[in-house]
């Protein structure tokens, strides 16, 4: 998968979200794993922004368990946020098409994410997009460059969410992602 700049990510995310006004963020990952916790941590940062029209769901390693709460929320769009090895620099955030997820690929999830995405779309009627965050597979945490890249991408993500859901349209100044 090729590297995506924060600006390209921003454009693609805007295109995917379209006119969505109610957006669900479903965080995926194992918080006890250094390389699999980034979906959970990123979702916490998004939740701290208190965005109008955005609700965060913490699914852990079983995103399929969120279908009931998602149906009750009635989102226009669902963003699944998960750590993903995309072969990019640590901290890269990218949209991953379901057909690019290898079938039978090892993951910490009970079901393949492509199957979960298809099920959630059918069950909720909402569009689903997978947002991957590249972990640093060589160490337990992101280095300064990875944290900076992740920060820039999260700023873009929150800016788009604010714009789509009618919240304040300014730029997020700072995320506290030093734990990532």
Task: Note down, in words, how this protein is organized.
By secondary structure, the protein is of the alpha/beta class. The protein has one domain (6-164): Rossmann fold (3-Layer(aba) Sandwich), CATH 3.40.50. It has helices at residues 6-17, 38-47, 67-73, 113-124, 144-164; strands spanning 23-28, 54-60, 77-83, 93-96, 127-133.
Short descriptors:
180 residues; alpha/beta; Rossmann fold; five-stranded mixed beta sheet; 5 helices; 34% helix; disordered C terminus
Strand residue percentage: 15-25%
- How many DSSP-defined strands? 5
Average per-residue pLDDT, rounded, comes to 80
Q: State the fourth-level CATH superfamily.
A: HybD-like
Strand sequence of the main sheet, in spatial order?
A: 2-1-3-5-4
Classified by CATH, the class is Alpha Beta
User: Based on CA inertia axes, which overall geometry fits?
Assistant: globular
**Structural class of the helix and strand makeup?**
alpha/beta
Q: What is shown here, in short?
A:
This protein has one domain (6-164): 3-Layer(aba) Sandwich (Rossmann fold).
What's the arrangement of secondary structure elements?
Elements: H1 6-17, E1 23-28, H2 38-47, E2 54-60, H3 67-73, E3 77-83, E4 93-96, H4 113-124, E5 127-133, H5 144-164
